[in-house]
Specification:
single chain; 259 residues; alpha+beta; Chitinase A, domain 3; six-stranded antiparallel beta sheet
Length: 259
């Protein structure tokens, strides 16, 4: 799945601005800025199930983050294939604006799919790549996806004990005790009783699953996190203890917080 995350788009916008600024001596700024056509806001997001699945479901709760494995082909309305990932499984995120998300159009249209199912999804320009040309995809393109859902894995935050102290907030420091396991039960890391772990929340000092999972915990609380690989160590893993594409399970106790 080709993904154009917010940070990449922002970087591209800055690059475009500086290119425009450097051209101002030869061309008018208005001419430089009018390179993209107006956004085509017509068309509806539609989908048709071509095969119903019987496995795990992509839940409709938009606050739930899920990792999905999909096989797909994307083409324009004139049948030109712009991306073909058939025969392989691509991991992506649903319910998230983080890197490697599937995009707002697919995110909405894949809700309710079950593993083993296939769905044809028609995504209008405003919910696809908009009015900017992206690689071999022209501006204002409607994209037709044929998607097969191969796996669904939820990012889980389960409170074992609800704390009563101050809560962990973005940019605050959190001190925790933890044990990290693979799904087979093997422990790959743990804090010691005398040496809990301290980190600053929301600064990517830890894996994304921790930033999301510890947020809003209260001091004294204990929480179990089940973290899919895209929110953990991804395709690289962390050798030798954490293999590639590993789901991680953490038992975390929030000891203290500070600004």
């Amino acid at each position: 799945m080709t993904v154009f995350p917010f940070r990449t788009r922002l970087k591209s916008l800055f690059q475009a601005f500086f290119i425009c600024a450097s051209c101002c001596g030869l061309f008018s700024l208005s001419a430089c800025l009018e390179t993209d056509p107006p956004l085509d806001t017509t068309g509806d997001l539609t989908f048709t199930d071509t095969r119903l699945g019987t496995g795990d479901v992509i839940v409709r709760d938009t606050t739930t983050i899920m990792q999905v494995g999909i096989n797909f082909q994307a083409r324009l309305k004139d049948s030109t294939v712009v991306q073909d990932a058939q025969g392989q499984t691509i991991l992506a995120l649903v319910g998230s604006t983080l890197d490697q998300n599937v995009g707002i159009g697919l995110d909405s249209a894949m809700r309710g799919m079950r593993v083993g199912g296939m769905r044809r999804i028609v995504v209008p320009p405003r919910l696809a790549f908009g009015n900017r040309k992206q690689g071999n995809i022209p501006s204002n393109s409607t994209i037709v996806y044929d998607v097969e859902l191969r796996s669904v894995e939820l990012f889980k935050r389960e409170d074992v004990v609800v704390g009563t102290g101050d809560s962990a907030k973005i940019n605050g420091n959190a001190t925790v005790k933890y044990v990290g396991r693979l799904t087979n039960g093997n422990i790959f890391d743990a804090s010691t009783t005398d040496n809990p772990f301290n980190f600053r929340l929301g600064q990517r000092a830890v894996i994304i699953g921790w930033d999301l999972g510890v947020l809003n915990m209260r001091v004294g609380g204990k929480r179990k996190l089940t973290i899919p690989s895209l929110l953990g160590y991804g395709t690289r893993g962390s050798p030798p203890r954490i293999p590639a594409n590993a789901t991680l399970v953490f038992d975390i106790e929030l000891v203290s917080v500070s600004n």
